[in-house]
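Summary of Year 1 activities. Much of the first year was spent building the evaluation harness for sequence design. The harness presents a backbone, in tokenized form, and records the residue chosen at every position. We chose the following record to illustrate the format because it has been used consistently in internal testing since the harness was completed.
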């Protein structure tokens, strides 16, 4: 098994803090000693010291050894962080204002990162808009997600549990809400979870046309607005966020700004489809200052989102 680098980061931090504490105590003790030893009442006449070779070598050698030791710890830890294990599970990780999405090798996409305990996980990071920074404090890792610049990071969860994920780069008004979790599960439980989602996706795809189940479509649509990051800007309870609330939206008449002019439109399936693929064409009045990127959703996914919006009376 590839050695986890988390212990190296802990030991590096402990070494740096310990060295700083020793230096702090040593300097303070020396200052207090000099304060009394060379007080003017004991040294009436100032004396000049021409030089002390041993002292000069000592105070040059100690900082050099300390800095080189810190460099060694940092270099070895960095090499482990950059040396991705061959058996790492790949997850495409995307940051956008203001949420994370995770796409697995089997095509499943979630807004929470699910991983098996004990297996290295490689995150291929990207951003759809501005610079974000993927940060998992429990695993001592943080890496920027930069638009147009692929970056990557890996980690391994050695214990089952849930771990916080933050965005560590200020990315806009709702930066502090850009939160999610890493859920580490035993291998058997993870395989069952992954197989279950994959099977549901296959059934959904194979069903194609035919009779639709509105309840299942609405449930899938609810998951999509979370996975695609829609709820980062649109609430479902009527409260005002960056964009208009989804509650009671479908079927109402909204005032929009189109090419700088106001007009009233019916919020129906056609309007929602257009707003998803071209969100800046008809902006709801009062929210016209926001510039949002278009979403790449299939026709079926749009239908499921519409089914969900219909339930938000």
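For this record, the design step produced the sequence shown next.
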């Amino acid at each position: 098994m590839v050695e986890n680098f988390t212990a190296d980061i802990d030991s590096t931090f402990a070494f740096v803090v310990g060295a700083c504490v020793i230096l702090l105590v040593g300097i303070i003790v020396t200052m207090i000693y000099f304060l009394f030893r060379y007080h003017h009442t004991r040294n009436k006449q100032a004396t000049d010291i021409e030089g002390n070779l041993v002292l000069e070598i000592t105070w040059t050698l100690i900082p050099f050894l300390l800095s080189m030791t810190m460099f060694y710890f940092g270099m070895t830890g960095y090499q482990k962080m950059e040396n991705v294990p061959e058996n790492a599970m790949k997850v495409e990780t995307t940051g956008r204002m203001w949420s994370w999405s995770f796409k697995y090798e089997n095509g499943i996409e979630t807004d929470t990162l699910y991983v098996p305990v004990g297996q290295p996980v490689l995150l291929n990071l990207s951003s759809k808009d501005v610079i974000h920074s993927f940060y998992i404090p429990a695993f001592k890792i943080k890496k920027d997600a930069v638009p147009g610049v692929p970056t990557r990071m890996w980690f391994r969860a050695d214990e089952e549990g849930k771990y916080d994920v933050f965005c560590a780069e200020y990315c806009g008004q709702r930066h502090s809400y850009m939160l999610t979790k890493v859920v580490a599960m035993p291998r058997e439980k993870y395989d069952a979870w992954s197989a279950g989602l994959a099977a549901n996706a296959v059934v959904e795809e194979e069903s194609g046309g035919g009779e639709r189940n509105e309840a299942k479509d609405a449930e899938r649509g609810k998951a999509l607005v979370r996975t695609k990051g829609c709820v980062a800007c649109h609430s479902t309870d009527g409260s005002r966020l960056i964009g208009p609330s989804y509650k009671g939206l479908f079927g109402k008449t909204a005032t929009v700004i189109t090419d700088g002019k106001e007009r009233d439109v019916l919020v129906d399936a056609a309007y929602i489809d257009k707003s998803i693929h071209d969100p800046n064409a008809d902006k709801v009045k009062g929210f016209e200052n926001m510039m949002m990127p278009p979403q790449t959703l299939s026709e079926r996914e749009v239908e499921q989102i519409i089914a969900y919006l219909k339930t938000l009376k």
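The chain has a mean pLDDT of 85. Quantitative recovery figures across the full test set are reported in Table 2.
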